[in-house]
Each structure stands twice: as C-alpha cells, then as structure tokens.
Write a structure and sequence with these properties.
The protein is an alpha+beta fold and about 200 residues long. It has one helix at about 155-200, and strands at about 1-5, 5, 15-20, 25-30, 35-40, 40-45, 50, 55, 65, 70-75, 80, 100-105, 110, 125-130. The chain is elongated, with a radius of gyration of 39 Å.
C-alpha cells in the first residue's frame, strides 16, 4: 500500500485500501468515520457519532438505541410475556383440605427479555385468596396426594389450635351476620306494624 509516497503493509486508522492494476493505495474515510471498509461503509465512528448500518449518525433512528461504549445503534427490545396459566388448586400450608380460606396462584413465562434501558417485565406470578367448602383430610392426604409425614406433637398441637381458632372466628362471623339479618327483619316488621296502626287510628 502507498500513502503519500510511503509503502505500508496495511492502511492506518481512518483509511481503507483500494487496489488497481497500476497501484494499491490508502484512501481516507469520511470525516465522521474513524475506521471504514470503503468510502460508503464505516465500521467505527468518531466520538460523538453513533454507528448504524455502516453510517455515522448524530442520534440513533426511531426504534433503535445506543448500546455500550461502542456507540452503536441496536434495535429496542420490549418485554414480552406469555399467557397466564390456570389458577392452582386452593391450598394452605401445602394442603388442599382441612381449611376454609386458603390461597391460589398462577404463573406465566417471559418470552422476550427487554433491552437494558427498557422497563422491567411485568409480574410473572400472581396470588389471591380463595374460599372452599371445608372438608376433613383423609388419612395421609396432602397436596398432590403424597404421603403425609409425621410431625412433632408440638407442631401438630399448634396447627390444631390455629385451625380451631379459625373455625371459631368463622362461626362468630356467621352468627353475627345472622343476628344482624334477624334484627333487620324484626325492625322492618315493627315499622310496618306502626304504620298500619297509625292508618287505622286515622
């Protein structure tokens, strides 16, 4: 290669090589280009410019963003998640029996991870409270039908105490609701009777 009368094994930075039957020479890249493959295709831009498809730009075009220290424009990637799964069976402490109020959950997969500068993906797991008809657990019954392991008496007693307390709380709430309904009906009947008596007097 020849550059201003000097023969080189390769062209210096900011130049690209051109070959012809008569002479091989180094040609300068465009002013905003620090390294190039040819006159119209840059491989590295000078400071303050962003490389995009062989060109040096002041800013990345729509749908692209600069990445890392290479000052290159890359396509913006938004998060993509799949569909929600079905809600899991209502359970409590890993069991699906022996309780009235429990919890159920559902999940979904992340199909595409977003760009580093984009917002994070939405939640991929949800939980909610659930209510089921209470039923007694059969011997050895646990979530998934596995064999129930024996646990220390202290833990069993504590769980039984919590279960009884929950039953009492539920019964108290139901009893209170029934009393309120009965009282409401009684007052409604009394008001109706007063109105009827007042009409008869007039």
């Amino acid at each position: 290669m020849r550059q201003t009368g000097v023969c080189l094994s390769s062209c210096p930075s900011g130049y690209y090589g051109t070959r012809s039957p008569d002479i091989n020479k180094c040609t300068k890249c465009k002013a905003d280009c620090d390294a190039c493959f040819n006159r119209n295709f840059c491989t590295k831009c000078k400071a303050g410019f962003y490389l995009h498809m062989g060109k040096c730009l002041d800013v990345c075009p729509d749908g692209f963003e600069p990445i890392g220290q290479h000052m290159e424009c890359t396509a913006i990637v938004h998060c993509e998640v799949g569909e929600w799964s079905q809600w899991s069976p209502c359970s409590k402490r890993g069991k699906t029996c022996g309780f009235k109020r429990g919890e159920e959950s559902r999940t979904r997969e992340t199909l595409r991870i977003p760009s580093a500068s984009r917002d994070t993906c939405p939640a991929t797991k949800e939980k909610r409270k659930c209510v089921v008809q209470r039923r007694q657990c059969r011997k050895g019954e646990r979530k998934g039908g596995g064999e129930r392991k024996r646990r220390p008496n202290k833990e069993n007693k504590e769980e039984n105490r919590e279960s009884r307390q929950e039953e009492r709380d539920t019964d108290n709430r139901e009893e209170s609701e029934n009393k309120n309904k009965t009282e409401h009906r009684r007052r409604k009947a009394q008001n109706k009777q007063r109105i009827s008596t007042a009409g008869s007097t007039v």
